[in-house]
């Protein structure tokens, strides 16, 4: 129950923080009063428009082709698809099923977890150099909109998020493997499952912030 409450509050809180930062940065139309909820609802409806989907697909393809050229794009897609499935299936059962994950969904979760582990390792090999924390900042840096990161450049924030996600991903892999081998006690395996869940939550929140910076307007990703 504690994990469910923390998950719901953190996801909703992050969603409000990100959307409110964009709402505050957008000046209201002349003669109209700024209304956050009306703006948010219009934005949600706009996500499902055909033009928005096409534009989003174009931005995503351009980003992938820029940073994962040639055959390496399949590593990105394997990573993206496996992470989306793992997050969707994991949180769906963790939040809405008192019994937790079981049966075929559990088998698929474990199987796709192998793909996630391999693709994450390949991603680190391909992109770790580009996200070194000791890189010099660009001459003109753009700070992230909103506290507590408003004094951190977007370039640095992307690098921090990259390594935070990598750490959370390695935590997910280690705890998943540890909970399946007959080496640890039942109590230790139960603790590993709890750590696995919180590692997944950190990965989800980190990926959400990175996606906001990388793909939504007024952002430049690397």
List low-confidence stretches: none
Rg (CA only): 19 Å
Number of helices: 7
The average pLDDT is 82
Overall strand count = 0
Coarse structural class: mainly alpha
Helix content: over 70%
Distance between the termini: 38 Å
List strands and helices in order, with pairings:
Elements: H1 2-25, H2 36-47, H3 50-67, H4 73-96, H5 103-127, H6 154-178, H7 186-215
Helix pairs in contact: 1-7, 4-5, 5-6, 6-7
Would you kindly provide a written description of the structure presented here, covering whatever features stand out?
α1 packs parallel to α7 (186-215) and α4 (73-96) runs antiparallel to α5 (103-127). The longest helix has 30 residues, at 186-215. The protein is 71% helix and 0% strand. The chain is built from seven helices and no strands. The protein is globular, with a radius of gyration of 19 Å. The model has no long low-confidence stretch (mean pLDDT 82). The chain is mainly alpha-helical and 222 residues long.
């Amino acid at each position: 129950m504690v994990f469910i409450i923390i998950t719901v509050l953190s996801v909703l809180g992050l969603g409000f923080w990100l959307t409110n930062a964009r709402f505050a940065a957008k000046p209201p139309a002349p003669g109209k009063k700024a209304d956050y909820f009306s703006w948010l609802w219009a934005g949600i409806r706009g996500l499902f428009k055909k033009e928005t989907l096409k534009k989003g697909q174009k931005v995503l393809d351009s980003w992938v082709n820029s940073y994962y050229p040639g055959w390496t794009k399949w590593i990105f897609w394997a990573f993206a698809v496996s992470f989306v499935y793992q997050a969707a299936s994991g949180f769906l059962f963790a939040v809405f099923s008192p019994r937790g994950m079981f049966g075929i969904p559990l088998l698929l979760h474990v199987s796709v977890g192998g793909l996630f582990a391999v693709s994450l390792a390949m991603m680190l090999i391909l992109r770790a150099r580009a996200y070194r924390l000791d890189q010099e900042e660009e001459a003109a840096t753009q700070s992230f909109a909103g506290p507590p990161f408003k004094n951190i450049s977007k370039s640095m924030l992307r690098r921090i998020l990259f390594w935070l996600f990598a750490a959370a991903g390695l935590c997910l892999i280690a705890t998943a493997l540890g909970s399946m081998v007959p080496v640890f006690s039942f109590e230790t395996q139960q603790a590993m499952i709890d750590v696995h869940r919180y590692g997944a939550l950190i990965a989800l929140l980190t990926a959400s912030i990175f996606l906001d910076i990388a793909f939504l307007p007024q952002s430049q990703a690397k």
